[in-house]
Specification:
Order of helices and strands: EEEEEEEEEEEEEEEEEEHEE
Distance between the termini: 28 Å
Number of helices: 1
Structural class: mainly beta
Low-confidence stretches: 95-99
Number of strands: 20
Helix content: under 10%
Mean pLDDT: 84
Length: about 270
């Protein structure tokens, strides 16, 4: 099966169009960037879910921000229009003696990770960042205070051994349809889209993907390392919804963030 995605200007306004066939498609309205109206997404539903994520931009700049959403979101990804892309700590959040960041690369800097914007994968199309939620990391959160609001786009929990993949893509101006090979069982959908001041469209898509044995083994190792390195007073009670993020870095600078649960001693292997 093949699917296609396009950025189109219609009389009623711009849309991102996903084709399942030449005759069948679905449009998602592209709104103007507004930091008060971020794109929010998560896997599962309140009480059994992944972490919560949000994507937004200022009204007057082409910078893009990506951040795990919680009561204490201590870091965010900044994709600056200049091409300086980074993940950094929000030091202004550190107003409590109970908060501590472990393994900051440079204690004198807020930067956790920094890279240069990579080249487009096709004319006018740039993959900015991918967030992946493995099925094993959609977990119960007893007493979850997150409400199932319309502002959060909830996606279905993937089957065991698969993952939900959210791609943040930048589309320059209006672009004709880009064709993908897509398994029928992993339908591509648009979570949300907005246009920054320069005319670039920021679109977040969702689909399911299989995890390779190599990735499963790497994530198993990361869970174990993160758990072993926790401070003794750090609560891993399921009610607190503790999570961690593992980063995959590619030669061209591309990043994939794996949103992982951190609720107890992980098994040595995962199915």
């Amino acid at each position: 099966m093949q699917a296609a995605i396009a950025s189109i200007n219609l009389p009623a306004g711009p849309v991102v169009r996903v084709y399942s066939s030449p005759e069948n498609y679905r449009d998602t309205q592209v709104r103007r960037a507004d930091p008060k109206k971020p794109i929010k997404f998560a896997v599962g539903s309140p009480g059994r879910r992944s972490g919560l994520w949000r994507v937004w931009s200022p009204k007057d700049k082409a910078d893009i921000y990506v951040q795990p959403q919680s009561n204490e979101s201590l870091a965010k990804v900044s994709l600056h229009e200049s091409g300086d892309w980074r993940c950094q700590v929000l030091f202004e959040k550190f107003d409590s003696a109970d908060l501590r960041l472990v393994n900051l690369p440079d204690e004198s800097s807020r930067i956790i990770d920094q890279w240069v914007q990579h080249t487009p994968f096709a004319d006018g199309w740039t993959d900015a960042l991918t967030v992946v939620v493995p099925s094993a990391d959609v977990v119960d959160v007893p007493g979850d205070e997150i409400k199932k609001m319309q502002t959060i786009r909830w996606t279905a929990e993937p089957p065991w051994g698969e993952a939900a993949e959210f791609r943040i893509t930048l589309i320059e101006k209006d672009q004709s349809a880009l064709l993908f090979d897509w398994p029928a069982s992993r339908r591509l959908s648009v979570i949300g889209a907005y246009r920054v001041v320069t005319g670039t469209t920021v679109v977040v898509t969702h689909h399911r993907t299989e995890l390779t044995d190599k990735v499963v083994q790497a994530l198993t190792r990361v869970r174990a390392e993160q758990y072993a390195g926790l401070p003794s007073n750090f609560s891993i009670s399921p009610e607190t919804g503790p999570r961690t993020v593992a980063t995959a870095r590619f030669a061209d600078g591309y990043r994939i963030y794996y949103d992982l649960a951190l609720t107890g001693p992980p098994p040595t292997t995962w199915p």
